[in-house]
# Entry
Amino acid sequence: MGKRAIGFQREIVAEAARLICEERLTDYKQAKHKAAERLGLSARSQMPDNALIHEAVIEYQRLFGGAEYAGHLQALRRTAVRAMKLLRDFNPRMVGAAVSGAVTDAHRVRLHGFADKPEMLDMFLQDRNIPYETNDRRYRYPDGRIEDVPTCEFMAGDIGIEMAMFPVEDLRRAPLSPHDGLPMKRLTLEQAERLAEEPIELASEGEAYD
# Structure
């Protein structure tokens, strides 16, 4: 790749990260194409990998997100822990942006649960009078399979929670992350508890404006 193309990619990465953080975009592909358009670049330009966007979002929030970002990320992580305790019968795992820190106020807690039948979660929530909505999320697996996995979405205070329900045998067979193409990082309750207690690192004022 030539120096000019590398320069274009860096510009797209920076602008896409800004759009995600400031305009509440959650779709990286949309953010990249919108960034290219804003920069006057061709839609046929070679787009950067999602992994670069993901890291740039974390860095942008570290530099400019401030206390609002730190508070929201910590709230997501602590809410995830409470939800996992409530849903411990489903062997919950914490996944997604709240694990890495690449979050904006558009993000919700995302969990993976496991049961013989996905409707067991519906019954669990109904028995506790917890309002929820059903949906599905598409996942890609290392063997090339693409599957739509059923989800339940509900609220914990003002924070949304989405739990995708996988077959029990998928507990040790994680789908691929859309950000880096590797098996998704799934945190157990104990790991999520430790993460929720870690301080959120932010840039100093001088560093943010260098």
